[in-house]
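User: Predict the full complex structure for these chains.
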Amino acid sequence: MAKNKPKLPAQFAAGERDEVPFAVMIGGDELRAGFVTVKEQKWEFVDGKKTKVQSTDQGEKVKRDELIQWIKGTRTYQEWNTGKLI
Amino acid sequence: MSLARGLDYYTGIIYEATVEASAPPWLKAAQATAAAQATAAAQASNLESNTLTSTSPPAQLPPKKDKQPKKKADADEDDDIDDSQVGVGSIAAGGRYDGLVGSFSSAAAGDKEKSKGHLPCVGVSIGMDRIFSLLWPKWVEKGMRSKETMVYVMSAGDGLLTERVALVGDLREAGIKVRMDIWSASS
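Assistant: Here is the predicted structure of the two-chain assembly.
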């Protein structure tokens, strides 16, 4: 069932399931001001199991117009070519 | 032929490829014997762990029967496969089977005389799922993943469906792999 208003934790869970390195969050006021929030997610091995690195980082405010450049400028993006995350 | 490979239709050379992890013990033993003989040493120790063996003169016949059921059980298990224990058997096999295709075509034509349908064939098949079941644990071990999604666009609070779609569109146009929640994320 398609949802117009999915809950944030559910969206995060979906992103984590795919082990997506960048979570981009948009909010009404923030977007009107021209910003989005980007949170980088990393995974590590704990006892041989791949686990998401927990961080209290609330993410970085990035101008929406500069988001593409911002993502392409990250090390994660530039070193990305094999599906490897760590 | 000395190696039947299930159905006894081979009429010439038979190929069977195994990797170290999938090789049955009899093959390893045969290789050890061959390595001991100076003349065969060069052939027996090729390609680090990958060994392509033409089994025209096999040292001993493999105990094929008791290997088969175990292989099935291993393939069904998921993540924590000890790949040293995965006995997937050969990962590729084939050979020359001059009589097989002809026997079908002559039967289809209602031709009782088999020799008339003689059609020489050589073929090798590669077991993708067997290769995959050997490679997948190594992939996981390295921390790899199976999707290339770079960005997940999500909304905090109030839906913003069109805004999300617009942002996803912009990022995809720039060549960045993006997903967003279209279907219920909890499903």
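The helical segments of chain A are 8-17, 28-32, 67-73, 75-78.
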